Amino acid sequence: MRRLLLWCAQNRWLASHVPRWRFARRAVRRFLPGEGFDAALKAATDFKAHGVGALFTLLGENITDLSEANKVLQHYEEVLAASTGIGAEISVKPTQLGLDIDAAAAYANLQRLALAAAKADSFVWIDMEGSGYTDRTLDLYRRLRQQHPHVGVALQAYLYRTVSDIAGLLPLKPAIRLVKGAYAEPPEIAFSAKREVDANYLALCAFMLPEVKRSKLRLVLATHDVDLIARAWRFGQALEMERSQMEVAMLYGIRTGEQLRLAREGFAVRDLIAYGDAWYQWYLRRLAERPANILFVARQLLP
Ligand SMILES: Cc1cc2nc3c(=O)[nH]c(=O)nc-3n(C[C@H](O)[C@H](O)[C@H](O)COP(=O)(O)OP(=O)(O)OC[C@H]3O[C@@H](n4cnc5c(N)ncnc54)[C@H](O)[C@@H]3O)c2cc1C
Prior knowledge:
Layout: H1 2-10, H2 12-17, H3 22-28, H4 37-49, E1 53-58, H5 66-82, E2 89-92, H6 103-119, E3 124-126, H7 134-147, E4 151-156, H8 162-169, E5 175-179, H9 194-213, E6 218-222, H10 226-238, E7 247-251, H11 256-264, E8 268-275, H12 280-289, H13 293-299
Parallel strand pairs: 1-2, 1-8, 2-3, 3-4, 4-5, 5-6, 6-7, 7-8
Helix pairs in contact: 1-12, 5-6, 9-10
The structure holds flavin-adenine dinucleotide (FAD).
Flavin-adenine dinucleotide binds near residues 250 and 272.
């Protein structure tokens, strides 16, 4: 089911038709407060009142014209200016900034975003896409990090290579958002069994947390797996870390109660709030993560 849904995510016919279906638009609202930034800002303000920070992401990927990247840049510059009061950060896909077309342009765009984030005392996260982009994304990040402290990158625990990618980044005092991984990857390069991905996630946490304790690394555990977060925290406790040094991020609409609980307990929590009309591929990846979500979609077909 996961592979089928991830195949659907790449299907052009479905990508151009599904977003027009009313029941699909209704179903996607579970993961988006709305298509416009105003709805995202309102959701972030509400979360802020409960001690949960925000991470904004304008949906969209694999743009085919660099003028689209310019619009994305302008949009994020406005977002950064509008959200200074709530301490929000932003998260962006390299292919939304032109990586498929021209790596130099994507780098220049990221640099502009990093400068805007520094000015707004915010932070730019670089999403990690499918494995075809891993090397190029890390290359962008390494170059960017040498000049800008306000940038971080997502790394995927399902890839065998991630441990050595982390080791390679550590001298840069990086910021790493650790995720399990949301794409269809072959067994030659990625763990396919969930328990193996989970075990690697925890091992990577154990590897990185001492660096967090020594303030050599900013680490965000981006997962809804609260058992895994609790197990990682046991390592944190053994290292006598403060709860506020344990950063967690989850997606809007998923395990909201747990986000609020973790924030109440003193962990640093952020909710990733996505918005925009290019939600099709992103939404299919959310369904693939939990195929039971399809029942929810099916229910939207009922009057
Ligand atoms: C803040 C954030 C940023 C991310 N950035 C990236 C990125 O840059 N690159 C990338 O490849 N992936 C990214 N992901 C997605 C990630 O790789 C996983 O696909 C996703 O988080 C699901 O895995 P999990 O860690 O929550 O664990 P799982 O073991 O899949 O889930 C644990 C529990 O969480 C709940 N849950 C998880 N997903 C869903 C869902 N979709 N709907 C309803 N309940 C759910 C379920 O109760 C499930 O039992 C990101 C995820 C988050 C939270």
